[in-house]
Design a protein that fits this description.
The complex is a heterotrimer of chains A (351), B (519) and C (528). By secondary structure, chain B is α/β, with parallel strands linked by helices. Chain B has 4 domains: 92 residues, Glutaredoxin (3-Layer(aba) Sandwich); 226 residues, Rossmann fold; 83 residues, Ubiquitin-like (UB roll); 86 residues, NADH-ubiquinone oxidoreductase 51kDa subunit, iron-sulphur binding domain (de novo design (two linked rop proteins), Up-down Bundle). Chain B is built from 22 helices and 15 strands. Chain B has a 5-stranded mixed β-sheet, with helices on both faces. A 4-stranded mixed β-sheet of chain B has the order 2-1-3-4, covered by helices on one side. Chain B has a 4-stranded parallel β-sheet with strand order 7-6-5-8, with helices on both faces. Chain C has 3 domains: 174 residues, 3-Layer(aba) Sandwich (Dimethylsulfoxide Reductase, domain 2); 188 residues, Rossmann fold (3-Layer(aba) Sandwich); 111 residues, Barwin-like endoglucanases. In chain C, the strands form 6 sheets. Chain C has a 6-stranded mixed barrel with strand order 16-20-17-19-18-21. A 5-stranded parallel β-sheet of chain C has the order 3-2-1-5-6, sandwiched between helices. In chain C, strands 9-10-11 form a 3-stranded parallel β-sheet, with no helix packed on it. The model of chain C has no long low-confidence stretch (mean pLDDT 88). The chains are: A alpha+beta (351), B alpha/beta (519), C alpha/beta (528). Chains in contact: A-B, A-C. Chains A and C meet through helix 4, strand 10, strand 11, helix 6 and strand 13 of A and helix 2, helix 10, helix 12, strand 9 and strand 10 of C. Bound molecules: flavin mononucleotide (FMN), iron/sulfur cluster (4 copies) and FE2/S2 (inorganic) cluster.
Chain lengths: 351, 519, 528
């Protein structure tokens, strides 16, 4: 199927929308409410395009492709409408990017930049929302909300925790937790799905506030060290200081689809903990003292060798770990079986 | 049936109730009793007579004399003069122009034919004037598809605003195989200054029920809902009575007239928001969700309430159906104009001599409606503008008074028929004030689902408020047009698309009113 | 899991028994809730606690802890009685049906009789059986609520029996799906961190396997099965086991009957603990070796759906800290051996060579989303669900499983049933999760107690109470709730200040050697 977009022909997939086709081919059309996961919402109206043969403008996020369709996302008429629509969104809240954590990672900012909007044309915001800081890990600053509805969809339909909804109407529309409780006292389980999917700086990771600008962090994928689901993580790391800044779920992972739980998203203080051991310890007279690696290794090796010699291999046992890698477990059991010479190896699979 | 010398029809509607009709009615009955007249003179309650601002009114048959603005102390005179001595109490008679309108008005009635004539709380009376004949005809002689075809052929278009052909709408739903389908009557009537649906329901609830059942049979729905504004207490009461009676008569319920067709009608009280009149928001609200519009397609006819195929029609649309079936599509095609058949019920408000309801043929000119039905301008003032089509309508100046009132003709003036609201303004009215209240209305009613409407309306309001307070600039007018035009092109539903029409027509046609405020 | 996470939504009916899914496996619970919300699947939850998942269930039943076999047998009793079983499947793919049938059709498993054993009303048992039995595809999820019993193996067999007679094994969306509790339990098992098998479940008593590893590793290997965790601590207690090497585990909090564990650790001659922190267990060690965290190394974890996924190094370990495998290599070589892994990839390669299920899961192939074993060669796409068309052993074996009571039942002195588990915000013994202050603020120690019991004893919410069993006592604040059955209390085991495992019974399942964490007799008393 062929679709003409801004004068160029593209091969379209039958089930996709015009916006999906455009994004797949690297053509940006402003969009604030559409997200792959929550799907079309048709709420922000920033994604309007012109279609030959159809009067008026159409939102591309919910416009199915048709063979031979001729679409323009860049005509002056379209850009003018997009500009006004994004301008209105920008005017609706307090979008002072410089003081926003989402700066550099904000989809509203991207849209405004693309359309050449330098500052909002109207002043609608009248500062009557307090920042909701009641939740342990998440901050909600409703003055930045653009009511795109992604968080509502995500909380209800993706993680199915059914906490967030819209309250009030019209301009006063706001997201509410349960029956408009502070997030921290609501039934929210702090999975952070809403935070990950919020296109602007409204729902943010409290713990990364002030830790640096988005573009300063490197993103590395790995796997959650907690439960057996094995959620794939995208860790934002500050290489300079060796610090984990924040953690996102990997959206296209077949295991977790971007979802995480409160541990997998926020429970990483242990890595940079002050209590980490940094040197081997040897107990002497009931007390631990610091030791060099060589000394500690030599002590362990000689003790195991002694016991093996005196009492036989079966007088030694090893507990492998359900929290370390396959490679390390492999090495461990090989050590017990080959070097110690016993099958006394187990771990707490059963516990 | 008893034989009475006279019938007295007392209009019971919200207005007359406020004016104390119940008290007056009991006084009347007592007085008649005292004079031994109760066997001769039959007092009946009916729906509204189609006037507005006439307080308690009653019509005496066969003389067809209408008394209006009655007070308790007037009853004595009426009984003693009129009923005992046969002398009309002329000081209480509605003035002759009004009576003229009344008679004139009745000629063309389809939807309101029984309003003010029969007792809406008595099914016998409805049956007595030929009610439920269409329903019987449908059940005994017609296949569902024939009903759909008949309505299609009649050219009936939706009266809720958009004017979509009703038969065509039904023809989408009818062929769908589904365990459950619904008919939903849109009785939300949220348009400011519109109360035509209310009077239809108050005056002739059985007509609506009959229409619903025919529609349900045509599309294969076994359950219907009437989604009605909570404020319409009297309508709700009368519909409840009517449903109960219809059930008792076996007209509604299981295996109606042994046809094997079952039908149940339920009343749902609305959420009280304007946007809930939009069909998909209505459905959301009915399902217990936030009343915001859904994306279409799928249209409700394919996937509506609880994801089942659902036909949504306005009260007036449905109320046209029994007559179409009874008299045939050919008959219906003799009324109205090409492309727009039948009559239309208007709510006329503003600086008219006779504000209120009227029902006229489609295609009647605005001038005729204002002059003949509305009795012309009040207090000898000059006509300045008419806002036609409700808040989302267009300000028409004097030069456009001859526009024909039907969906197609109005379109040529970029105007809309909407729900049939006509607000007539005289020379003293300042368009800025009117526009200000319209925009305030939209700002208040925006549901908040989409960005252009929920943020655009506050922008418009800020601008018009500034102008109204004398702080505006001419550039603000252009900005209002620009913002509302983008809202018109991009908003999710018709509410956000609407402000453009009144804004553009007000500024284009009455620019001076705005400039006056800027000096 | 025999099946995969993506297949969750392909089931018409999902049964959760013995898993507080939204607390212990939150993201899998989200998938199940999605399936229910989207109307794709109907959910049945059987659990003594009215867990969050019960709110999404078509049918929820609270059973008495330890009555799982009775409940499952009852379901099969009803299913067979009504002919809802998959007759073709039984004929073609299973064996042992007659003996099995003779057991479950005993009158003892009629709904009326099982009501007495399980406290689930007979009517509910019938409804559950009907919903499950009539489903086209039904899946079953369980976690430690099934395994941590003296009858754990029986429980597991019963779940398999149920799924086999209903023809739900080897089909997309079906399966018996144990949810693994820790990030790499699956991998630790796959890699032979078990006393009876080499990597890939190759038995140590199998001569061919022994020969294979002897050749590969160029050494002599022992051919007798080793001892399990619980036996290890018994042997330490008895003094027959002299040396223990613990890598990244915390038995002090995770193992049953804490006082016994402490004595055992005090008695052992030499104990090495390798960890990120001085854990409660490490306090008893002779040597502690600092190890790198997951974020500081490369390698692979295998998740509950058998998906082998890459973990990547994100940051450098603290100065002086090295990874677990490097430490192991150092010790091996200090003992005079010849280890020469240059990087973790060398080990991965050895795993590919020696573990048939992992043969195709090479470093180069794993990719961002991993591969599900078995993956026998480098062309193989991996296996989303097991037993398709055929069972590993040929025909599926149905076993008659008679119901047995738990080891320790409530009595006059200890009238309540104590059951243990996890909460959402903490993990295992807390070594990792308790270092995050916010998680501690969200979830501290507690004992869940029913409103009935609390009222009877005059205990109010948040009141600190003493909980005791024959093995010891702890204190914890009471969480008075309707979500737990009368006569049952629940304590999460994460907390060293209120260690549930000081209370638990170390009686074990005779085959799997799993302790009975989920049932023991306890009492609750007001303090003062
Ligand atoms: C904001 C808004 C409000 C509406 N309010 C009403 C209403 O009060 N009554 C009504 O019948 N239709 C209303 N409509 C139109 C309905 O969406 C729908 O078109 C109508 O009920 C269909 O019936 P019809 O085809 O018989 O006109 C409204 C539409 C919009 C956009
Ligand atoms: S954190 Fe999770 S549970 Fe809480 S509101 Fe956001 S999506 Fe919902
Ligand atoms: S909080 Fe974020 S995701 Fe939610 S509606 Fe507002 S802008 Fe959208
Ligand atoms: S994020 Fe939560 S659900 Fe996912 S693996 Fe980690 S602990 Fe398990
Ligand atoms: S246009 Fe207005 S009323 Fe309609 S959906 Fe958008 S916000 Fe709601
Ligand atoms: S992305 Fe299309 S309307 Fe928001």
């Amino acid at each position: 199927m062929i679709v003409y977009l801004n004068g160029k022909a593209y091969e379209a997939k039958p089930e996709e929308t015009v916006l999906q086709l455009a994004l797949r081919n690297g053509i940006y059309i402003p969009h604030l409410c559409y997200h792959e996961k929550t799907g079309k919402a048709a709420k922000c109206r920033a994604c309007v395009v012109e279609v030959e043969g159809i009067p008026g403008l159409k939102t591309s996020c919910n416009l199915p492709v048709r063979d031979g369709m001729v679409v323009s996302s860049k005509s002056e008429k379209v850009l003018q409408a997009q500009r006004m629509v994004v301008d209105l969104a920008l005017s609706s809240g307090q979008h002072d990017c410089l003081s926003c954590e989402q700066n550099g990672n904000c989809e509203l900012q991207d849209a405004a930049y693309y359309l050449g909007i330098e500052r909002p044309s109207f002043q609608l915001y009248d500062n009557d929302y307090e920042v909701d800081d009641s939740s342990e890990f998440i901050r909600v600053d409703r003055s930045r909300c653009i009511s795109c509805g992604r968080c509502v969809e995500a909380c209800n339909k993706t993680v199915v925790n059914e906490v967030i909804n819209f309250g009030n109407r019209g301009f006063d529309t706001k997201i509410v937790f349960d029956n408009d409780l502070p997030m921290g006292t609501s039934t929210c389980v702090q999975c952070g799905e809403c935070m990950q999917i919020c296109p602007v700086g409204c729902i943010i990771d409290k713990r990364s506030i002030g830790s640096g600008r988005n573009w300063e962090f490197e993103k590395v994928e790995t796997v959650c060290p907690y439960c057996g689901v094995g959620c794939r993580l995208e860790v934002h790391v500050d290489r300079k200081n060796g610090k984990i800044i924040r953690v996102n779920g990997v959206e296209d992972s077949p295991t977790n689809n971007g979802m995480l739980c409160v541990k997998g998203r926020f429970g990483f203080d242990f890595v940079n903990s002050e209590e980490r051991l940094t040197t081997p310890l040897i107990k002497e007279n009931g007390k631990f003292r610091e030791a060099e690696w060589d000394e500690a290794i030599a002590l362990v090796a000689s003790k195991f060798s002694e016991i093996k010699k005196e009492f036989g291999s079966d007088a030694i046992a090893g507990l492998a770990s359900a929290k370390v890698t396959n490679e390390e477990n492999f090495a461990f059991q090989k050590f017990i079986r080959r070097e110690v010479g016993t099958n006394n190896v187990d771990h707490c699979a059963r516990l | 049936m008893k034989f009475y010398r006279s019938h007295v029809l007392i209009a019971i509607d919200d207005n007359s109730l406020k004016a104390g009709v119940k008290k007056i009615e009991s006084l009347l009955r007592a007085k008649l009793d005292k004079n031994n007249l109760s066997e001769e003179i039959n007092v009946l309650e009916t729906g509204g007579l189609g006037y507005f601002g006439t307080g308690v009114s009653m019509t005496v048959y066969p003389e067809q004399i209408t008394y209006a603005n009655l007070k308790e102390e007037d009853i004595n005179d009426i009984v003693e003069e009129h009923f005992l001595k046969g002398r009309v109490v002329s000081r209480l008679v509605l003035n002759s122009t009004i009576t003229k309108k009344y008679n004139f008005n009745y000629k063309n009635r389809v939807v309101l034919e029984n309003s003010g004539i029969i007792d809406p709380e008595n099914i016998e009376e409805y049956i007595g004037v030929g009610g439920y004949e269409a329903w019987e005809k449908v059940l005994t002689q017609m296949k569902p598809s024939e009903v759909v075809d008949e309505v299609k052929a009649s050219g009936l278009r939706g009266r809720g605003g958009a004017g979509f052909p009703a038969g065509v709408k039904w023809s989408f739903t009818a062929p769908i195989e589904a365990k459950q389908k619904y008919v939903v009557v849109n009785a939300d009537e949220g348009e400011p200054g519109t109360f035509k649906d209310r009077l239809i329901m108050e005056g002739d609830p059985h007509k609506l029920l009959e229409g619903i059942m025919i529609a349900a049979y045509a599309v294969g729905a076994t359950k219907s809902y009437i989604y009605i504004r909570g404020e319409y207490k009297l309508c709700i009461h009368r519909l409840e009575v009517a449903i109960k009676q219809a059930n008792e008569y076996g007209i509604l319920g299981k295996n109606i007239f042994s046809s094997g067709f079952d039908h149940e009608i339920e009343i749902k009280i609305g959420a009280g928001a304007y946007v809930c009149g939009e069909e998909t928001a209505l459905i959301e609200s009915m399902e217990g969700n936030r009343g915001t519009p859904r994306y279409k397609p799928p249209f409700p006819g394919v996937e509506g309430a609880w994801h089942k195929p659902t036909v949504v029609n306005n009260v007036e649309t449905i109320a046209n159906v029994p007559a179409i079936i009874k008299n045939g599509a050919d008959w219906y095609n003799t009324i109205g104009v090409e492309g727009c058949r039948g009559t239309k019920v208007y709510t006329m408000m503003g600086d008219l001599k006779l504000p209120g309801l009227c029902e006229t043929e489609m295609g009647t000119s605005l001038r005729t409606i204002i002059d003949e039905y509305g009795g012309g301008m009040k207090d000898g003032k000059q006509f300045k503008a008419a806002l036609v089509g409700g808040a989302a309508g267009v300000f028409l100046p004097n030069e456009m008074l001859d526009v024909k009132m039907d969906f197609n003709s109005l379109k040529e003036y970029s105007a809309v028929l909407g729900s049939g609201a006509i607000l007539v303004m005289n020379e003293d009215v300042d368009i800025v004030d009117i526009l200000w209240s319209i925009i305030r209305f939209f700002r208040h009613e925006s549901c908040g689902k989409c960005n252009p409407c929920s943020n655009g309306n506050p922008v418009l309001y800020k601008l018009i408020d500034k102008i109204r307070k004398g702080k505006g600039k001419e550039a603000d007018l252009d900005m209002m047009i620009k913002v509302s035009e983008v809202m018109n092109k991009t908003s999710f539903c018709a509410l956000g698309q609407s402000p453009y029409m009144p804004i553009k027509s007000a500024i284009d046609n009455f620019r001076d009113d705005f400039l006056k405020r800027m000096k | 899991m025999t099946n995969d996470i993506a297949g969750i939504k392909k089931a018409d009916v999902i049964l959760i028994i013995g898993s507080d899914t939204s607390a212990a496996h939150p993201v899998i619970s989200a998938r199940i809730k999605q399936a229910v919300r989207e109307g794709k699947s109907k959910l049945i939850v059987i659990d003594p606690k009215k867990i969050v998942m019960a709110d999404y269930a078509e049918i929820y039943a609270a059973h008495r802890p330890g009555s799982d076999v009775a409940v499952l047998n009852c379901m099969m009793h009803e299913i067979l009685k009504n002919g809802w079983e998959d007759k073709e499947y039984i004929k073609n793919r299973l064996e042992g049906f007659d003996e099995f049938k003779a057991e479950v059709m005993k009158d003892k498993y009629s709904p009326e009789n099982v009501e007495k054993l399980s406290n689930i009303p007979a009517e509910t048992l019938r409804q559950i059986s009907e919903l499950f039995g009539k489903a086209k595809t039904a899946s079953l999820y369980y976690a430690m609520g099934i395994t941590q019993h003296t009858t754990g193996t029986d429980n597991v067999w019963s779940t398999a029996n149920l799924q086999m007679i209903c023809g739900n094994l080897g089909v997309e969306g079906g399966g018996v799906n144990p949810l693994r509790g820790q990030s790499n339990v699956q991998g630790a098992c796959d890699m032979g961190g078990l006393p009876n098998v080499y990597p890939g479940y190759q038995k140590v008593v199998d001569e061919k396997a022994q020969a294979k590893f002897e050749k590969a590793w160029n050494c002599k290997l022992d051919n007798k099965v080793g001892i399990t965790v619980t036996e290890i601590f018994d042997a330490m207690y008895d003094g027959t086991l002299k040396g223990l090497y613990v890598m990244g585990e915390n038995p002090y909090l995770s193992d049953p009957d804490q006082n016994h564990i402490i004595k055992a650790m005090e008695r052992v001659d030499f104990m090495v603990v390798q960890d990120m922190f001085i854990t409660e267990t490490a306090e008893y060690a002779d040597v502690i070796l600092p190890a790198a965290a997951f974020a500081e190394k490369d390698g692979h974890f295998t998740n509950t759906e058998r998906r082998v996924q890459r973990i990547n190094k994100i940051i450098e370990p603290p100065k002086g800290v090295i990874t677990d495998w490097e430490i192991i290599q150092l010790i091996a070589n200090a003992m005079g051996s010849d280890w020469n892994y240059k990087s973790v990839r060398d080990i991965t390669k050895e795993i590919n060579e020696l573990t048939p299920q992992y043969a195709g899961i090479t470093w180069e192939r794993v990719g961002r989303f991993g591969l599900q074993w078995p993956c026998p060669n480098e062309e193989h796409p991996g296996t989303p669900y097991l037993h398709k068309g055929k069972f590993a052993r040929g025909k599926g074996l149905l076993r008659p499983i008679p119901f047995k009571e738990p080891d320790e039942l409530p009595d006059e002195e200890y009238p309540l049933i104590l059951t243990t588990g996890r909460v959402l915000q903490q993990f295992h013994t807390g070594t990792m999760s308790r270092k995050t202050e916010g998680l501690n603020n969200l979830a501290g120690p507690m004992v869940m107690i029913s409103v009935d019991d609390a009222e009877r004893m005059g205990i109010s919410n948040s009141e600190v109470v003493e909980i005791s069993t024959r093995r010891g006592e702890i204190t914890a604040p009471a969480f008075v709730t309707k979500r737990i059955s009368t006569g049952v209390i629940y304590i999460p085991f994460h907390y060293k200040e209120s260690p549930a495992n000081r209370l638990t019974n170390s009686a074990i399942d005779p085959i799997a050697k799993i302790p009975e964490y989920k049932v023991c007799a306890a009492k609750v008393q007001k303090i003062n």
